Fold:
Amino acid sequence: MSLQDDNKAIVGRWFTDFWGENGDLSVVDKIAAPDMLLKYSLHEPRKGREDIKAFMTDFRAAFPDLNFWGTADLIAEGDHVVGQWEGGGTHTGPAFKDFLAGSLPANTGRKMHFTGVTVLKLKDGKIVEEIGLDDGVACLTQLKLLRTA
Structure:
């Protein structure tokens, strides 16, 4: 297999295990670099394995049915892999304070469903960066953290 095929396999596993329905946090220690950067427009950037696991633990507690999945084939070039996705969940858990636009009180019952594109950088078989562009306006509007005109 080529470097690009190896990288796509690693990212595919990340999308399935970390972002997928079951949210297996053990994958962070296996395929994320110790100082990995996770950055999306909805949240403060996260750096390092423990910070990333804490983020996902809180996200899944607030949105127990959280799930994201790929919507197109992964594209790889050199050390980078690009993936398109969609996902969401229902806020039925504790208060969630991680959105940059505001916080949710506990158990609002609000649903979010949105899409995005993510670029991941790998080095020596580990993910060192995940930078995503998501449809944050749709997400925040659905969660009533933004109001439409």
